[in-house]
Every structure is written in C-alpha cells, then in structure tokens.
Amino acid sequence: QGSELSGWATGRWTYEGIDLNHNFADLNTALWDAEDNDLVPHEFPNHYIPIPEYYTFANATVAPETRAVIDWMQRYPFVLSANLHGGELVVTYPFDMTRTYWKAQELTPTADDGVFRWLATVYATSNLAMA
User: Fold this and answer.
1) Beta-carbon neighbour count of residue 83 at 10 Å?
2) Whether the Cβ atoms of residue 121 and residue 37 lie closer than 8 Å to each other
3) 20 vs 63: CA distance, rounded Å
4) Percent of the chain with pLDDT over 70
5) Dist CA 77 CA 72 (whole Å)
6) 87, part of any domain
C-alpha cells in the first residue's frame, strides 16, 4: 500500500518488538572512524567490514531474522545484493546514514558511488512507476 496509506512502521516490528529495518549492525560509523584516523585501507580495509563482535553475543538485541541474514552473508560472501522494500518507490544506497547525526540529507558517497548511482538509475528507469 505504501507508507502514506498503511502507516510508515507497518510490518517493521517483530513479535519481540525489534524494528527489522534498523536491526543490522552499524558498519557506517566503524568505517568513518577508521577513515578519520587514516586507517583505511591498510589497517582497516574498506571492502570488507566485519560484523562487530559485540553484535554476535547471545544477549545482543538481534532479531532471529537478522541473525539468519548475517549467517547467510558469512556463508555466501556476495559482492552485490538488492533489498526490495514493499510499497515504496525508493532506491537506498549502501552507507546511507549521515556522518552528522542531525544532518538528514548529508551526502555520504563511497568509492563505488558511480556504480551504485548507475545501478539505481537502470533500476528506476526500468520501473514505469518510478520513471
């Protein structure tokens, strides 16, 4: 139905009260901290950011669905994926958080920004509703 018809949070919360849309580990901050400390790429490779150890603890607030995705990613180390959000016409880029918490529309490009923009454009222009 889209968020304007059904409520923006419909379907995001599990029975345990976990928002699946925001349950994955924050890898953005780890990368930005490493960049700010000149650790990229020699000491902190930016092509693979491991799941933080604290996130794998048994008492971490991680939904079973999120744990399953992490296990799947570790078994099959793919290099490109797509996530389909039902009901919305949107393309979200990797590392789409902002470095500055209060600055909602801050650009946070990655080294692959050109590739992501190209993929988004191909997808959007192939979708009649988006085009």
Assistant:
1) 6
2) no
3) 7
4) 85
5) 8
6) yes
